[in-house]
Design brief:
This protein folds into 3 domains: about 80 residues, Immunoglobulin-like, CATH 2.60.40; about 100 residues, no CATH class; about 130 residues, Glutaredoxin (3-Layer(aba) Sandwich). α2 packs antiparallel against α3, α2 packs parallel to α4 and α7 packs parallel to α10. The protein has 10 helices and 15 strands.
Length: about 350
């Protein structure tokens, strides 16, 4: 009898192991109409369904698909949807159509458990940061206390999360999310080293490694890449000509509202420090020369300006991986980048510390 019981336990174990070789979602939603469409799509590619089903008369449904690694998916139930972060698990979802799909109970996936914890801490803070940026039309004065405090809180939360869950794919995801608010590539490298190999065996791990490698170019502490481009008079100007000076390589354009709003403040900083071994080298992402020259004159920009008039295809901008403007790099006399993306007030404070 004991032998039969042991065999039964072993068979159950094998059955569960086989289920774990693919993702299977067992859903039961009270009040869900019979025949409701239910399906899964990949968060990064929502054009094709990974699995689909229809609900039964009792609100039950089953979805099954094989995942190559832990993945961020979207579960769609009728006109409701919810993000899931799961592996090849046997997942159970229970809920009620009269409640938010976000409140439905999901069990059976440790990855999803980690993701829900991430959402309650880091995710909520990131949402607050996005709201803060939107209120400021995506040009927040980063010297404001509320911005710094929120970013600091997020950074601390990410480090704590990684420390507690170094083998979780969600920790890799959290590290990747932190790229947008972490300018120091060394911080990202340290986080990567703390992650277990298991945590990196997914698309987020590959992307994180790629981002870190790309960030090493033009990172703070790295040597600024030299470049040459023609000025407004058609003369070639190179960054290397400014060796021995502090130079702000400033990416802007005549059509960029935030850039034009920042220019008067930048002019004041320039006037204060232009005779103290500091200058600015403007790189314009304009396409029309007349508008570029008109903006230089109207904004009273006295420093050297260069452009190839290729807009976002500007060769220097591509070299420095500039994807938004205003954007800048402060280079020291030895040719190393010592700061990035400074607003005028931050630049003034930085120069005061360096030159006064």
């Amino acid at each position: 009898m004991k032998i039969r019981f042991l065999l039964l336990v072993l068979l159950i174990g094998v059955g569960n192991w086989m289920l774990a070789q693919k993702l299977t979602i067992y859903g039961n939603v009270k009040g869900l109409a019979s025949g409701t469409d239910v399906f899964l799509v990949d968060f990064s590619n929502q054009n094709s369904k990974l699995a689909s089903s229809k609900s039964s008369q009792t609100g039950d449904f089953i979805l099954s698909t094989k995942l190559e690694a832990a993945s961020l998916l979207i579960l769609v139930v009728g006109d409701m949807d919810r993000v899931l972060f799961v592996s090849n698990d046997a997942v159970t979802i229970k809920g009620d159509v009269n409640t938010s799909i976000a409140d439905w109970v999901v069990t059976g996936s440790s990855t999803q458990d980690d993701y829900q914890q991430y959402q309650k801490t880091i995710g909520n803070s990131m949402n607050q940061l996005n709201e803060l940026l939107q209120k400021a039309n995506n040009k927040l004065d980063s010297s404001k206390d509320d911005y710094h405090q929120l970013v600091s809180k997020i950074q601390t939360s990410i480090d704590s999360f990684i420390t507690s869950k170094p083998a979780s794919a969600v920790s890799t995801f959290a590290t990747l999310v932190s790229v947008g608010i972490t300018e120091d590539v060394k911080v990202l490298e340290q986080r990567l080293k703390r992650l277990k190999s298991r945590a990196l065996q997914n698309m987020f791990g590959g992307r994180l490694k790629q981002v870190i490698e790309e960030a090493k170019y033009n990172a703070i502490g790295s040597k600024a890449l030299d470049f040459s481009q023609k000025d407004a008079d058609g003369k070639w100007v190179s960054l290397s000509q400014y060796k021995g000076q502090y130079v702000l390589v400033d990416f802007w354009a005549s059509w960029c509202g935030p850039c034009r709003a920042e220019n008067p403040k930048l002019v004041r900083v320039y006037q204060q420090y232009k005779n103290k071994n500091f200058t600015i080298l403007g790189v314009s992402l304009d396409t029309e020369k007349n508008r570029w020259l008109d903006a230089i004159q109207r904004d009273e920009l006295e420093w050297t300006q260069v452009s190839d008039l290729k807009g976002w295809e500007n060769e220097v901008a591509k070299k420095y991986k500039v994807v938004s403007i205003p954007n800048n790099f402060l280079v020291n006399p030895e040719g190393k980048i010592i700061a990035k993306n400074l607003n005028a007030e931050e630049l003034k404070n930085k120069l005061a510390a360096l030159l006064n």
